[in-house]
């Protein structure tokens, strides 16, 4: 039975590949983190600098995610519902952060806000610290996580069409009412899915933030930077402890994605 | 007050949303990239090429592109097989495996690098030590790029009409023939755009690589790490030159993806 044999062959190849590249590494985080016991893990996680790093990561995400969510919805509406010259260019620019290296993003901001950059001197005169401080780290994170909500909203808006919106307007609803009562409820699952992806990207960003943060322990160190710092200072339990928390968060993200997907496809 | 409500592109909200979109994109994306391009040409085009073609920069770019090529090829084959198995095969736990495919999108890349180092590094529990080698770079890139091809091929396979395949089989076509003449032409655009996205990601990746690659110039220093190291050491000219080359590669890949989409939807538009 050649068909059957090839089916099992392919299954073994695919699952073997996933095991080596994906599943084994994931289990490794959990195993290594609990290597020395839960007490040890708790001790390394309650280090003040580590706590600060997690707080900073959450603050950055709390600013970047809402901004990119609003942008994603507005941008999706602009691309799909308005025919304006240059819509193709806007669409392409939204895709850019998916293709550009985070390090290139970081360097760009570094040059923009540096001493000799276009905006560096202005901010310096006004006493606003951009580089090696929260503002540039937030902008870097917004850049890399920008496309996710827009990417989810655009196809959904195309699919639902604008008949209901037009009906609402004919019945006398204003733009704002139409948006809140018709458009937003219709695209809510796409928005939520996009928010989940954006959050995951914000929590996990490393490259862009690493360039602009300056790695100041207890000040500009996010959770991901702290992992590297701990590892390079031979604090392996610390590195694995933070990694464990981040890995648990990403598994939660996966669960959220899986729960949201069926609703996505049956909308 | 009544507005001419049939045309949403007129009126204040429309102008506002367009204005906001343009302003946000300009401030966050366009302006920083413009600053990079501007800075790289500050000392003249000649000096840009001189820096970009320094032996260390060329070695780093070559390594990044080479590793990305290897990773793209592996993804094209194994990603397609994985998508196939997830669509056409039935086995217990398939839903869990399907959900796990997205893990590299959800897991911070620095964590991916750390855990790969724990698994395939000096203290490996399976006795494989590839730390600080080019093999390690490819392994880390395989992890972060895994979902792209699977997720672009999967939906196409799901929607593929199986009757054509059955017809071909009943006419005596072998499995390989069916795949080559019927399935592959349909999923090829998906494979290509998935591969292009994986390639872009592989060229630009840093988080998964900093811990496991060792970052030795000329040996295991990829382009992104080169840029990072040269920013740290204050060599902005060197960092900018390589960064602009990486930027050009990104633009090229986006153009290629656009081209693939254009060709793939050709018959739908005609």
Alpha-beta classification of chain A? mainly alpha
How does the major sheet of chain B shape up? none
- Largest sheet of chain A at a glance? none
Taking all Cα atoms into account, the compactness measure Rg of chain A is: 22 Å
Number of helices of chain B: 12
Mean pLDDT of chain A: 91
Write down how many β-strands of chain B occur, each being a DSSP E stretch of 2 or more residues: 0
Terminus-to-terminus distance of chain B: 43 Å
List the helices and strands and how they pair.
The complex is a heterodimer of chains A (267) and B (270).
Chain A: H1 2-33, H2 38-45, H3 48-81, H4 87-99, H5 102-113, H6 120-125, H7 134-144, H8 147-160, H9 163-170, H10 175-204, H11 207-213, H12 223-232, H13 236-265
Chain B: H1 12-40, H2 45-52, H3 55-88, H4 94-100, H5 103-106, H6 109-120, H7 134-159, H8 162-170, H9 175-204, H10 223-232, H11 236-264, H12 266-269
Helix pairs in contact in B: 1-11, 2-11, 3-7, 3-9, 3-10, 6-7, 7-9, 8-9, 9-11, 10-11
General description of the model:
The complex is a heterodimer of chains A (267) and B (270). Chain A has 2 domains: 33 residues; 229 residues, MetI-like fold, CATH 1.10.3720. Chain A has 267 residues and is mainly α. Chain B is an all-alpha fold. Chain B has a domain of 157 residues: MetI-like fold (Orthogonal Bundle), CATH 1.10.3720.10. Helix content of chain B is 75%, strand content 0%. Chain B is built from 12 helices and no strands. In chain B, helix 2 packs across helix 11 and helix 7 crosses helix 9. The N terminus of chain B is likely disordered. Chains A and B meet through helix 1, helix 3, helix 4, helix 5 and helix 7 of A and helix 1, helix 3, helix 4, helix 5 and helix 6 of B.
């Amino acid at each position: 039975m050649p068909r059957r044999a090839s089916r099992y062959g392919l299954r073994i190849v695919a699952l073997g590949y996933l095991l080596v590249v994906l599943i084994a590494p994931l289990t490794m985080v959990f195993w290594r983190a609990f290597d020395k016991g839960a007490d040890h893990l708790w001790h390394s996680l309650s280090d003040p600098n580590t706590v600060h790093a997690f707080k900073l990561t959450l603050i950055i995400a709390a600013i970047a995610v809402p901004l990119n969510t609003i942008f994603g919805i507005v941008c999706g509406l602009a691309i799909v519902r308005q025919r304006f010259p240059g819509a193709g260019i806007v669409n392409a620019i939204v895709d850019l952060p998916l293709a550009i290296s985070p390090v290139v993003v970081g360097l760009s901001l570094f040059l923009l806000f540096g001493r000799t950059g276009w905006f560096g001197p202005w901010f310096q005169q006004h006493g606003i610290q951009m580089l090696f401080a929260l503002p540039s780290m937030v902008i870097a994170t917004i850049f890399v996580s920008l496309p996710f909500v827009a990417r989810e909203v655009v196809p959904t808006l195309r699919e639902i069409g604008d008949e209901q919106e037009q009906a609402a307007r004919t019945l006398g609803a204003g733009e704002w009412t139409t948006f809140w009562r018709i458009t937003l409820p219709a695209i809510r699952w796409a928005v939520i899915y996009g928010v989940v992806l954006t959050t995951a990207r914000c929590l996990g960003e490393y490259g862009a933030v690493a360039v602009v943060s300056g790695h100041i322990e207890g000040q500009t160190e996010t959770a991901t930077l702290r992992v590297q710092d701990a590892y390079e200072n031979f604090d392996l339990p610390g590195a694995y402890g933070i990694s464990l928390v981040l890995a648990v968060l990403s598994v939660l993200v996966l669960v959220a994605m899986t729960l949201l997907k069926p609703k996505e496809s049956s909308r | 007050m009544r507005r001419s409500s049939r045309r949403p592109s007129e009126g204040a909200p429309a102008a506002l949303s367009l204005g906001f979109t343009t302003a946000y994109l300009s401030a966050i994306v366009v302006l920083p990239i413009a600053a990079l391009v501007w800075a790289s040409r500050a000392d003249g085009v000649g000096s840009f090429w001189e820096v970009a073609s320094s032996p260390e920069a060329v070695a780093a770019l070559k390594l990044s592109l080479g590793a990305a090529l290897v990773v793209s090829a592996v993804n094209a084959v194994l990603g397609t097989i994985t998508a196939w198995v997830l669509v056409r095969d039935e086995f217990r736990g398939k839903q869990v495996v399907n959900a796990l495919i997205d893990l590299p999108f959800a897991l911070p890349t620095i964590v991916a690098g750390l855990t790969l180092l724990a698994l395939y590094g000096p203290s490996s529990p399976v006795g494989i030590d590839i730390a600080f080698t080019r093999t390690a770079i490819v392994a880390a890139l395989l992890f972060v790029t895994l979902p792209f091809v699977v997720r672009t091929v999967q939906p196409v396979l799901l929607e593929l009409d199986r009757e054509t395949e059955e017809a071909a089989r009943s006419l005596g076509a072998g499995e390989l023939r069916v795949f080559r003449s019927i399935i592959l032409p349909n999923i090829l655009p998906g494979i290509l755009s998935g591969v292009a996205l994986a390639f872009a990601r592989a060229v630009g990746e840093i988080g998964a690589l900093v811990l496991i690659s060792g970052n030795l110039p000329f040996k295991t220093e990829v382009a992104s790490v080169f840029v990072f190291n040269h920013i740290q050491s204050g060599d902005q000219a060197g960092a900018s030159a390589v960064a602009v080359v990486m930027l050009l590669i990104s633009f090229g890949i986006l153009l290629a993806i656009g081209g693939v989409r254009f060709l793939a939807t050709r018959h739908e538009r005609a």
